[in-house]
Design goal:
Blueprint: H1 19-50, H2 54-61, H3 78-93, E1 104-108, E2 115-118, E3 122-126, H4 127-132, H5 136-151, H6 154-171, H7 176-211, H8 219-229, H9 236-240, H10 245-254
Parallel strand pairs: 1-3
Antiparallel strand pairs: 2-3
Length: 271
């Protein structure tokens, strides 16, 4: 028996695809896996966080107002603060908040128009937003929208999702502090729009119950039109709550049939 080494065809171990193209394909697949894992972790973290009883969340936060850097907590005006808190209390009474959920509204000295709900049942409204609102009805829309976020436990869900993403980034060896906000924004895009739509619907229902109509609901965006039109950076209120045409149209539709003569908007006392 004899043996011989057959001649190996040329190029048998060479890919027909260019090396850069193959690398990019593998990189795209890896990024897709990371994004899907991040989305799953964010949703799971948010779901688990919503299971935390509000009483426990409140005990963790207490009276502290947990805010992003650069936003102060100085009270703008004591009397105006009480008026805003009283309006929020009246709206909350008709919104069926979970048993034991308390809401504290903080009117703070800050010129940038902004408002958002945060952990522990706290809602922040800036003096800059208050001054720009054309009526109490517009303020009620803002407050009811943020109360709806609290009712749905959106703030703690966002915190839980963010914590899960941070753990993923740490496991991958990345800079969690630098990358988490960008990745969180990416995976929250679809969820945020759904959450905002639900909060708007809840706020419209609250205005109908409180005033008997939804007139003035779109006043928030009318008040901020000059702010955006002047070329200034959009406040976080609009950056995280997209003021798209469909949303504004929905608020205007909710006010269809409202007679401003018979049901005038309520004046908002000046600061």
């Amino acid at each position: 028996m004899t043996y011989e080494n057959p001649r190996i065809p040329e190029g048998i171990n060479v890919t027909r695809e260019s090396v850069p193209a193959e690398f990019l394909r593998l990189l795209a697949g890896l990024l897709l896996v990371v994004v899907v894992a991040a989305l799953a972790l964010h949703l799971a973290g948010g779901w688990l966080a919503r299971q935390v009883p509000f009483a426990l969340e409140r005990s963790w936060v207490g009276e502290r107002l947990l805010l992003p850097p650069g936003i102060g907590t100085d009270v703008a005006d004591a009397q105006a603060q009480e008026r805003v808190q009283a309006l929020a209390r009246e709206l909350a009474a008709g919104m069926a908040l979970p048993r034991g959920m308390t809401v504290d509204v903080h009117l703070v000295r800050e010129d940038v128009p902004n408002a958002f709900a945060t952990l522990g049942g706290h809602v922040l409204v800036t003096e800059g937003l208050y001054r720009r609102l054309p009526s109490e009805n517009a303020l009620a829309m803002v407050l009811a929208h943020e109360l709806a976020h609290l009712r749905a436990r959106d703030p703690i869900a966002a915190a839980g999702g963010g914590a899960a993403l941070t753990l993923l980034l740490l496991a991958l060896g990345g800079d969690a502090e630098a990358l988490a906000p960008q990745l969180a924004r990416l995976v929250q895009l679809g969820y945020s729009r759904q959450a905002e739509a639900r909060a708007d619907e809840a706020a419209i229902a609250a205005l109908l119950g409180h005033y008997g109509h939804a007139g003035g609901a779109a006043g928030l965006f009318e008040a901020l039109a000059d702010y955006d039109g002047a070329g200034r950076e959009l406040p976080a209120l609009l950056a995280t709550h997209p003021a798209d045409a469909a949303r504004i149209a929905r608020l205007q539709e909710a006010a269809r049939g409202w007679d401003a003569t018979r049901q005038p908007l309520v004046a908002l006392p000046a600061l």
